[in-house]
Amino acid sequence: MDGCRTWTDWQNVAGGVKVGGDSYETRFVACDNEYGPGKARTGATRLIREDDIKFIMMPGGDSWPGLQLVAERTGMLFSTLLPAGFTPETTMLPAPAEVHPGYDVTGVDWLRAPDQSSGTM
Hints:
alpha/beta; 5 strands; 30% helix
């Protein structure tokens, strides 16, 4: 969380996040879901409805099944540090942000696109 707060401060001092020709101030709002799908769903819904959040970053893992319902319903952009809770039935894939160079959790076979030339993964 400290890193996210620091990044938010840096972005705002630099004029905000630039999207197209516009700049937007960033805000960091924390929500502890205790790695539970139910608390994650409740927290994400509150962040979207009450805090007007436009992007949710999460650690991943056990909380994803609860968040997937919110992502599908709202179209909210989610980013995860650990996509370990995903399965082939995951219908909406958040933007993975791999931060563990020695632990490549995004390299599971079903996340890779099939090789069109050979028909293999």
